[in-house]
User: Fold Enoyl-[acyl-carrier-protein] reductase [NADH] from Nocardioides terrae.
Amino acid sequence: MANTGLLAGKRILVAGVTMDSSIGFAAAKVAQEQGATVLISNFGRALSITKRIAKRLPAEAPVLELDVTDPDHLAGLEAQVREHVDGLDGVVHSIAYGNPETLLGGKFLDGPWEDVAQAVQVSAYSLKSLAMAAKPLMTSGSGVVGLTFDATVAWPAYDWMGVAKAGLESCARYLARDLGPEGIRVNLVSAGPLRTLAAKAIPGFGDLEDMWSTRAPLGWDNTDQEPTAKAICALLSDFFPATTGEIIHVDGGFHAMGA
Ligand SMILES: NC(=O)c1ccc[n+]([C@@H]2O[C@H](COP(=O)([O-])OP(=O)(O)OC[C@H]3O[C@@H](n4cnc5c(N)ncnc54)[C@H](O)[C@@H]3O)[C@@H](O)[C@H]2O)c1
Assistant:
């Protein structure tokens, strides 16, 4: 890989890569193009798909097994990472899950607590779990970046995932508070709608996509993960040394428009 670039010499773990449509895949690709050594992770049955997809990166990345709800996996992360690199300069949290049958697509008033609890654990609490599992590998100057979908307002269809994202956004601010004294930055990228596996599973996601096509002043290509990946990599680079607890919108400008 290139030894020049925005992330030259940096070691980065991207958690949450399944398909080559995954935002995590695009982040891993851009990070490699910018000179980073990249590890990727996933969990459960999707792990075998990730191992195939890893070969499509510019350089095949090692694939780690990490279920962010499994305490054994979290405890074993440091050793798994050290099989490949001796530390981490960046961690990307590209993970979310909410049961589409009970929580999304107009089910808000009936969403059962057990499923809501799972969505919050996987999609919000896990930012803290992952950051703490990776903390022994990080030093001052390292960064953690997660992905949100603007949780300051209520959306059609997004329902309990919106609540989980509000939790994620708050979690990122508290993590920024508690890891800042050690020089570790924690930021989020708020992306517009992108056609990934997770997005296609949301009943009614097309309504969100339609809004973007008419309102984003820069326009919005819901099949292009690269702008989001570039923002993730910029936040992991040395060019945001004094930024933490921040949410950068990569949405074609949608969030700034009233109508
Ligand atoms: N696609 C969009 O429109 C969009 C917009 C804004 C934010 N996001 C966010 O981007 C992130 C990545 O999602 P994506 O759209 O690339 O979809 P994706 O389905 O490709 O990625 C989600 C990943 O989360 C992983 N995951 C789920 N549960 C897990 C667990 N318990 N442990 C470890 N990994 C687990 C899945 O295996 C998958 O790899 C998510 O946080 C998502 O909410 C997506």
Notes: The pocket of nicotinamide-adenine-dinucleotide is lined by residues 16-19, 22-24, 42-43, 46, 66-69, 94-97, 122, 147-149, 191, 193-194, 196-199 (CB under 6 Å). The first strand starts at residue 11 and ends at 15. The chain has a mean pLDDT of 97. Helices lie at 23-33, 47-53, 71-82, 113-134, 159-179, 197-200, 205-215, 226-236.
